[in-house]
Write a structure and sequence with these properties.
The chain is an alpha+beta fold. It has 4 domains: 70 residues, no CATH class; 122 residues, no CATH class; 95 residues, Nucleic acid-binding proteins (OB fold (Dihydrolipoamide Acetyltransferase, E2P)), CATH 2.40.50; 86 residues, no CATH class. The strands form 2 sheets. The chain has a 5-stranded mixed beta barrel with strand order 2-3-4-6-5. It has a two-stranded antiparallel sheet with strand order 1-8. A hairpin with a 2-residue loop joins strand 5 and strand 6. Helix 12 packs antiparallel against helix 14. It is elongated and about 90 Å long. It starts with 5 loop residues before the first helix and ends with a helix.
Amino acid sequence: MPQQNGDSIDLIKKVLYLEKSRGYRDDAVTCGLEEFIKLNLPAAMQVVSGYKGADHFERQRVIERLEDSLDGGGQGISRVTDPASLALSVDRASGVGLKRAKLLEKLGIRTIEDLLTYLPRRLEDRTRFVQIGGLHRGETVAVRGNVVGVDQSRISGRTTIVRATLSDGTGFLYATWFNQPWVVNQIRRGEQIDVYGKIEQHYGKLQITSPVWEPAGEGMEIGRIVPIYPATEGLSDRYLRTLIARNLKLYGAAFPNVIPEQIRKRHDLLTRSEAIRALHFPTDENSFEKARRTLAFEELLLLQIGMGGQTRTLPGLSHAGDGALVDTFIARLPFRLTSAQQNAMREIMADLGASRRMMRLLQGDVGSGKTIVSLIAALAVIDAGYQVAIMAPTEILAQQHSLKISQLLAGLPVNSAVLTSASKKKDELKQE
């Protein structure tokens, strides 16, 4: 874009800011944005063409592309590196405002960090480009072609159809949009565009209906692995992609590294900034999974550190008994405990005998003997003079555990009962 003087650029930026603050209504200047740009920055007319007839979302995209152009393709945007900025309300994010902030809150997005860590529900690979001559009905692909014609028609009263004819030298493809009249002003004959969608065939002609499209090589919606986000009314999936990409450019460097460098390298993890970027701009599915693994590792590390701190500082009760009940129970078992069960039991017994709270996760495959280890821990607590509750997620599982436990405890001086929402005489059970 040709260089403009500073006063002209400042004026245009002020008009764009006013247009955004007024909700993209094309009333920031009385002549309309297209005419204003034609008079003040004619080199940008291709970017702003069709603004008057565009919908709200398309107008926002035009404004953002204009702003990036004025900043030299984004080079003039100042990157934020202060981690505290991530805690700012999402209405402070670029391209949001109070109205959209309320819609984002429905998705659980309240801060800039929430926005940038908003996980896609799936990925869609839009990297496969096919020449028109090699297209087949029913396949979903990307196509790059030159616009050799574009027209608009109306059928059935209010239904408008915009049709663009694309060619890449190997054939013709007809791209059709229903009730999107602004498209006719955004796609120009002679320019090259990318489209993505499902190929159809009508009367021998290849057609793609309501495709995703963008200027050739833009690389936001087509030509990459695209994240598909959970959306809500008033916030399209495409808007979320644009919003996240824009703010990732601004705030991506503000994420602090939580995982120590030595641990990160040992486990082949990304930095936090790298992981956040790979979530939204993955080069392939492996890079996306590596980003998810990094963030999951980080979350578990922080959880473990927090629980470790609680274990050391929060007081608990020592359940140190003489071990007679546990020894008797183990001796009566018709099988020997595995080495893994014995190791888990020793660690649990050590925790139960200490005067601090125990926080443990007993992990094992189905049939590995977790119930026996849990029952031994329960007997150790009972032996120390306390009662124990073993909880199950469903009533059926509770009944199954109760039956198995009562069989294992037969002949021992321990009373057991099952208590569910359907149990009668709950007070009597509690008093036993």
